[in-house]
Each structure stands twice: as structure tokens, then as C-alpha cells.
Amino acid sequence: MRTGLTILFLSLGMVSDAVAQETPPAVAIYPVLVQAPVYGAKVDIPSIPGGGGEGTTGTTDWGFNSAYMGGMELNSRHAFGEVDVLWTKPSASHDATPRIDVASEIWAITLKGGYRVYKGLGVTGGARYLSLDLDSTLDFPTSGVTLHGSSTRARWLPFVGGDWRGLVARKWTLGLSADVGINRGDDSSTRLRARADWQAVPHLSIRLGYQMLHLALGADATLGGVTRHWNTTQTMHGPEFGLGIVF
Predict the structure, then answer these.
(1) For the segment 164-222, what is each residue's pLDDT rounded down to a tens digit?
(2) Could you state, in order of their start, the residue ranges of all structural domains in the chain?
(3) Backbone angles phi, psi at 26, to 5 degrees
(4) pTM of whole model > 0.70?
(5) Class of 2-246 in CATH
(6) Mind listing the pLDDT tens digit for each residue in 26-39?
(7) pLDDT value at position 48?
(8) Phi, psi of 194, rounded to the nearest 5 degrees
């Protein structure tokens, strides 16, 4: 993950040198944004009923899901800001020992601001509100033990990052961004995003992009009749498509 972020930040710098920056649209509103993410999850539990101090881990296979988003962007010559909302109910499973089934409902609201320090390259900071409803089942067929657990977490997580935007053709705007969540206990979030906006007509923009969102959250939940602290990581990555109004 850290290596990927390093490569992306270097790419942002090289792109900013290679492409002349022009001011993006002052206001862009994307009421329609959809994503088709590939989703996977991992759940770590410290102990199981009747077991010793050893914990157990369940990891799902990757599965295709859908996500719905909306957003607004404000741009001036140097400063910029973004607000975007993501909602999805991904699920995944893995038929191994233990067999794991994970179903989630995720809300992610991102508030980001930044300043262009060199051409289109900017530094960013902000916070992401995360709400996660998680239901998980771990089945141990050899011992006949089945663990059911659910948890709800909601909190704001700060982040820092980098962002580049520039006109690569008369009607095409390219954007690259990355942010790394500042860890707070067991919780963090990281996002990588690439997008291309085509302004087909004066006030209409079509967006094509790709996004990866990685979440790590800890929670207390009842599993097998006993309250335990567990950790879960949720990863979604996939293409996105949207229609926007620009001014």
C-alpha cells in the first residue's frame, strides 16, 4: 500500500511537469456517479469459544458489487475543495476453514480541501466520515462451532494527501489523487483515484475513472455469546462513471 502511494505521488509530479495546467471548471456537480467495485474483506477475532489465546482470521474471496456516489468540486486559481458521498452494500464470502460470510453497508462522506503549489500539483487535507454496519458469520465445520457477529461503527477520520489536475486536451481534464488516513487506534482509511472528465457540451461533463478505497476498523461485537474486540479491513476498487454539471 505505501509503495503504491509513493509511486502515485511521483507520477503526480511527473505529470505536472509534462502537461501545461489550465484552470479547471470553477464549479462541478456530479449528481450521478456509479462504481462497480471489486470487494473483499478480512475479519480478525482474538479468540473463539473453547479456544485458548489464539485468534482466528477469515478472509473473503473477491466479489463484484455496486456503489453509488455524488459529489461537488470548487476550484479557484490555487485553492480547491471537494465533497463526495459514497454508499454501498457489498458482500463477499469464502468457502474455506473457517468459512466466512461478510455483509456490509458503508457510507463514506469525504470533505477535502487543498492548495496548488506547482502548476496543477496540490497538497490536500481533510476528513472522511465512515459509517460501517458489518454482519459476519464464521463457520468451523470440524468443531461444529459457528460464530455470528455484527457491529456498527461511525466516526470521522482525518487524512492528508496529494492531488493533480490539468487539461490534457481542449475538452479533457485529467485528475489524479491519493490520500492516507491518519491512524486513530484501529481505524484508518486510504484512497487512490484517477479520473478523466470530458466536457462534451458547455455545461455537461462525462466522467470516467477508477477508485480504490481501503478501510481498517476495530469494533467490539458479540460473537458466540461473548463480547470480543475484532478488526476488519474492507477494500473496494473498480471503475466509476458519472454525469456532471459544470460552470
Answers:
(1) 999 888 889 999 999 998 766 778 899 999 999 999 898 999 999 999 999 988 877 76
(2) 2-246
(3) -65, -40
(4) yes
(5) mainly beta
(6) 899 999 899 999 99
(7) 52
(8) -130, 140
Find the length of the chain: 247
Q: Around 34, how many Cα atoms within 13 Å sit in the side-chain half-sphere?
A: 4
> What are the beta bridge partners of residue 30?
71
- What are the b/e assignments for 77-108, b being 16+ CB within 10 Å? eeebebbbebebebebbbeeebebbbbbebeb
Residue 7: pLDDT band by 50, 70, 90 thresholds? Answer: very low
How far apart (Å, rounded) are the C-alpha atoms in residues 240 and 247?
Answer: 22
* Residue-wise DSSP of the chain: -HHHHHHHHHHHHHHHHHS---PPPSEEEEEEEEE--EEEEEEEES--TT--S--EEEEPPPEE--EEEEEEEEE-SSEEEEEEEEEE--EEEE-SSSEEEEEEEEEEEEEEEEEEEETTEEEEEEEEEEEEEEEEEEEETTTTEEEEEEEEEEEEEEEEEEEEEEEEETTEEEEEEEEEEPPBTTBEEEEEEEEEEEEEETTEEEEEEEEEEEEEEEEEEEETTEEEEEEEEEEEEEEEEEEEEE-
Find out whether 68 and 90 touch, Cβ atoms under 8 Å: no
Contact 87, 68 (CB under 8 A): yes
